[in-house]
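ping. complex inputs:
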Amino acid sequence: MEITAVDKLELKELYDRFRDPATIKALAYEIDKEAQNLKESINIMEVCGGHTHTIMKYGLKQLLPKSINFIHGPGCPVCIMPKERIDHAYILSMQDDVILATLGDMIKVPGSRGSLQDARSLGADVRFVYSPLDIIKIAKENPDKKVIFFAIGFETTTPMSAALLQHTIDRGIKNILFHINHVTVPEVMKELIDSRDIHIDSYNNKIDAFIGPSHVSVIAGAKIYQPFPTKYNRPVVVSGFEPVDVMEGVLMLIKQFNQNRCELEIQYKRSVTIEGNTNAQKLIDKFFTKRELFKWRGLGNIPYSALRLKDEYKEYDAEEIYADILPIEEIEDHKLCICGDILRGIATPNECQVFGTACKPSSPLGSCMVSSEGACSAYYKYGSIIS
Amino acid sequence: MCLSIPSKVVSIDKDRCTAIVDTIGVQREVGIDFIEKEVKVGDFVLIHIGFAMNIISQEDALESIKVYQEILQKMDEEERRQAIIDGDNCSG
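pong. complex structure:
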């Protein structure tokens, strides 16, 4: 094969090179050779739903030896949103003077009263925004309405909510409010390890290593995973989202096992540093503080795993302002849905009895089927490629 | 929500703290509030929900590509060697 020199990058090469089938195959070959020296099989959790989709879309699992298993993690902000929070969004959207704005697939996820899509069909003004800053325009065009931003996402989207609040304050806008549902990655990773330690008899798929999320790490820095190799004895490699990135991440992890190392490494060096984006971190620290407890769908209450607005910004906090109409009672998930086990990494979508039958992307029972990052959605979309 | 591909900076409006970026031929305006270094036209950036999150390091991207090319070359050599061994063992 002719090796072409690349001195200067073109935009196209930044994705083509990292999706190149020959490179994926070569890395699979390297992994296979390296894996022959493993003392035992290893289970790698890819925390982020973006990685799950890459693994499914490019059939990466099928390229790996049997001694390497992927466990799909809970890194899908829509999937982990409990019904209680979706009900909040639903109730807020049904107020006469409210426009509810949110991101992504959130409008399709069913709560106990229905989805935001259902609310819209009943006359609620629910808007999907591409960027939180679009909300400023909506607020200006609707001065008689309160525009509530139902903010979701991990460390990746938190700075954008903070930026919207900064713009809201700077421009003296009085009709933008926030319902904050931002969650954090390290706390749920700890919960997944701890819960396996507690239920050691019922969980036979212990997590041996992590592939760390890409974009979360761009913002928060790879430093947030340092406790996992040092305190929990689990190596972490922060990988990019392209298939070549994931394969190289897997290879780096196997080498750690073979060389008796347990470290935090960055594969995705073109975008991730140890420190992360300090401008974004400062803005997050300015407006947000940790919640003592936050319920994750399927995973239950996890301490300090989510953020809320600081008390000094409570005039912007829809949860405070509308506290009297927002219920706090816990709501059970659908009995047949096993999203909880899937998010915990102890079941795969095809083990669910309603997968692809009663639960489909067009009529989802659980959130993992709704979100484009959900494991069920990935199995539904790409399952036929690999079966 | 997380999947995004690199975009190229086409123009910058410093006063509004925004840039026009090109994502495989589609141009759009994004916020550059979080970028720590000075963004230049021609830089590659990662976009997430309307904001540039960081400038992609071309140096690191090129370094990775070089490593992959070496792996590819090594594999080609292994394959050639394997083909020769297979040929030697050919019973036909």
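The interface with chain A takes residues 1-8, 22, 24, 30-31, 33-36, 44, 46, 48-51, 53-54, 56-58, 60-66, 68-69, 71-76, 78 of chain B (CB under 8 Å).
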